[in-house]
Amino acid sequence: RKFEQDLGDAAQAERFELHYQPEVDTRTGAIVGFEALLRWNRPGHGMVAAADFIALAEETGLIAHVDDWVIGRACADAAGWPKPVRVAVNLSPTAFRSRTLVGAVARALADSGLAPARLELEIGEAVLRGDGARALAILHQLRGLGVRIALDDFGTGHSSLDCLRLFSFDKVKIDPSFIAGLSEPGPCAAIVRAVTRLGAALGFVTTAEGVETADQLAQLREQGCDTAQGYLLGRAGPADEVPALFAQQR
Ligand code: G
Ligand code: G
Ligand code: MN
Ligand code: NA
Predict the structure, then answer these.
(1) Which domains are assigned to the chain?
(2) Which of 15, 79, 83, 102 supports an S-S bond with 10, CB 3.0-4.6 Å?
(3) Could you tell me which residue ranges the EAL domain spans (predicted)?
(4) Which pairs from 13-19 meet CB under 8 Å and 24+ separation?
């Protein structure tokens, strides 16, 4: 069977699954939210990570359906968690521009009963390229629903600061490449500190991604970075394992 056919069938056959990676407060270690990461249980192949099929889903136009499903599933899952922490969902550039996005978000919130402020939508810098006016209009409509908007993979695009000029994001997620650089001499500590200062001035939360060592976490705390994600703090795990993570937190 062809990859594309399998992918097309997956949405109907409920072969998609969301795994959740914790995001923690750098000072207290408390879990403040989870990022939903898509997995595809492909027959005969096991679990396929998002990175290995999102590009094809984009090309074939399937992505809008996939992201609609993800938003609905993530809201429903989060509504059942024992603590009212946030759930973050990644939006592809194509899904972002689809006519159905704002309606799908509104429906997912209504169906799940999730408080809108608990849903965070992550977009990449690429979303604001091209028809920026349309992208901004969609961002404002989404914010009108009461959801939070995060800028993902910050610093890797060609217009990082332009993104901050155009829209006031609720959160900026610093790309893992800068966090990895904290482990060696170089510009990364200064860059991270500058972004957290920008966050304090402009009113966004700063999150570090790809935190793998205790030393990186200590430096992030020192530089004033608010929250962190990464293997040090927890890998993405199946939805049914999330409630136990709250219990461990006392
Ligand atoms: O967890 P993983 O390594 O598969 O994630 C790789 C990339 O796939 C990340 O950049 C992430 O933003 C993206 N991704 C993960 N889940 C989703 C999803 O539900 N929708 C979209 N559009 N992208 C996702
Ligand atoms: O682009 P986005 O941030 O949405 O992608 C998240 C991806 O990063 C997921 O595929 C997730 O599995 C991966 N990831 C999460 N934490 C770490 C980490 O500490 N190290 C590395 N190398 N990858 C990570
Ligand atoms: Mn992300
Ligand atoms: Na990211």
Answers:
(1) 3-169 (3.20.20.450)
(2) 15
(3) 1-250
(4) 15/40, 15/41, 15/42, 15/43, 16/40, 16/41, 16/66, 16/69, 16/70, 16/73, 17/41, 17/47, 17/238, 17/239, 18/70, 18/73, 18/74, 18/77, 18/239, 19/236, 19/237, 19/238, 19/239
